[in-house]
Amino acid sequence: MKRTLSSSAIATAICLLGVTLSVQAQPAGHSMHNAAASSGTATAAAQPAATKRYDLHTNIVDGKMVFVDDKGQVNPTLSANAGDTIEIVLESGEGAEHDLVIPELNVASAKFSAGTGKTTLRFKVPRSGAFTYYCSIPGHRQIGMEGKLQVSGTAVADAGTVPAANTDSSQAALALYTPAPVPQRAADPSAVSVAANPAGVPAAIGTRAPKTLKYRMETVELPGKLDDGTSFTYWTFDRQVPGPMLRARVGDTVELTLANARDSKMIHSIDLHAVTGGHGGGEHTQVAPGQEKAITFKALNPGLYVYHCATPLVPQHIAAGMYGMILVEPEGGLAKVDREYYVMQGEMYTGRPHGAKVHQEADLEKMANELPDYYVFNGEVGALSKTHKLQAKVGETVRIYFGVGGPNKISSFHVIGEIFDTVYSEGSFSGIKHDVQTTLVAPGGATIVEIKVQHPGSYLLVDHALSRAGKGAVGVLEVTGVPVPGVYKAGPL
Question: Does the annotation flag 308 for ligand binding?
Fold first, then answer.
């Protein structure tokens, strides 16, 4: 059966999957060919063929990523006659990585950024019509990088140089729809551990009056150790997953500066669920590589809140490691405990199966279908069993700040061999429960649990959807000391 795809379906699939089209950018003077073959005879154009040149740079305007021409026009309509040669000189104005594609004409530029400098896309337009150009980097079209190419007239008889496009060609459509296979490469030898230390909890605030706090974080893209012999390109806050835990008290004013590393390829941002207004800060912290922006907010509501990157595709940025938590203490602070730990669960979607000894690439189709290859605590397999362990002594009370970055899955948080004495359900200080075995935590949600440990041993932190333990979601609470009599004993009385 012959299979055809509409141009809108092709464009949607390309934007979702980040497909690179088969036609590449060429140096000035080199003609480009469409992938689809002509099925008809071209007729003479009403206008003589010409070369039309456009200079476009990318930028952020009114919170959106856009193309801008040399007159300052945002996402300008480009015009030409059928048979004209179009030359588009492209430059990244804010430094992030982009491209320009016109799927209906089977045309795509090379990717360009501040690091690559300008690139030139040159092609001949075979027919009239209104065509959409956009950036195919995942999320960029959704945030504004889209414009029109308006072509008048009829095709020029030049089939030997540039065949007329045939949008009904199943083969051409499927070539666009199907992404090229990602070449396998070995794990990156420069990969480092990105696992946040669970003991990295800021000091308790207590009974002080409200004041102004200043925080600064940097978004960094770097190769990290996902598993033994496996690496992944993480996107992070301050080179760790989760990002640093922030701590304030209700009534504090917080100034937060977000910087994006100069060598980043992507724009990044931050949305804090503790913030009222400005999309949680995401509206005003879309930060290009090498730049920084600041927001100021008042901590109005006490509780434990998730923060994450809010740059499209948002789930892609989250799945790459861009999440963390902020604790807003109630007036008077929290009851004192012996130890506090910071743990977050996330999912990772990779092109190769779980455990493959390679450098893993993100798989956005698996992400859209919610089929994770890995579930991790603090960013990597073994983060809380090999790299770090939670520790306590018999008789101590342990408080765990637990959140789910997601982007998609609920966690059934459980500690094998223990019962939560106190649970602050959904991270709310007004939602206190006692004697809880397993607590549900939504993606983008949090909880606080407290345990008074009474027997030595190794206690496993898990998501009680236990198949996920085999995919990485396991941590260890190591308890030492003398057991409390009568609590537990191996064997009969």
Answer: yes
